[in-house]
Q: What sequence folds into this?
């Protein structure tokens, strides 16, 4: 079994799509470990605020299978394939970590956004504070403590 960490984001009906993503992910992977939900301004484009969180799960599936499952869930919730990276979306599911795997195919792991985006690093540090980033060789708690928190605004919110 591998432990996977998944980033969830939405800025189109975000409460609805984050909740349905959690339901679908739990159906596929079983019990999830959930971070807090964070609201953040759009990064890389002008748009509505996003809701983001990170969840952890265990799986026996391959990286390819996990990513394929994410794409199916996104599509089932109105995500259009081929839409540009920095744009509004109903649902965005990204594989952040697959155990301590370091690879570039079928996806880049660990995902580069971990070290670049507060809306990924803060929730990851919340649920895996003592886990080491397999390349930076620092804990997620330490990475978050050293992150430039003035570079991106985000705050905890609750899903109703």
A:
């Amino acid at each position: 079994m591998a432990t996977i960490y998944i980033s969830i984001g939405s800025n189109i009906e975000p409460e609805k799509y984050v909740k349905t993503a959690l339901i679908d992910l739990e159906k596929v992977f079983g019990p999830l470990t959930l971070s807090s939900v964070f609201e953040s301004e759009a990064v890389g484009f002008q748009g509505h605020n996003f809701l983001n969180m990170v969840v952890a799960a265990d799986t026996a599936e391959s990286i390819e299978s996990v990513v394929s499952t994410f794409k199916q869930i996104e599509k089932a919730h109105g995500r259009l394939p081929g839409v540009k990276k920095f744009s509004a979306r109903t649902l965005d599911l990204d594989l952040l970590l697959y155990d301590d795997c370091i690879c570039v195919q079928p996806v880049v792991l660990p995902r580069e956004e971990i070290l670049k985006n507060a809306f990924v690093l803060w929730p990851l540090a919340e649920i895996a504070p003592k886990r080491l980033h397999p390349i930076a060789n620092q804990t997620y708690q330490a990475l978050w403590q050293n992150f430039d928190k003035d570079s991106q605004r985000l705050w905890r919110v609750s899903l109703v």
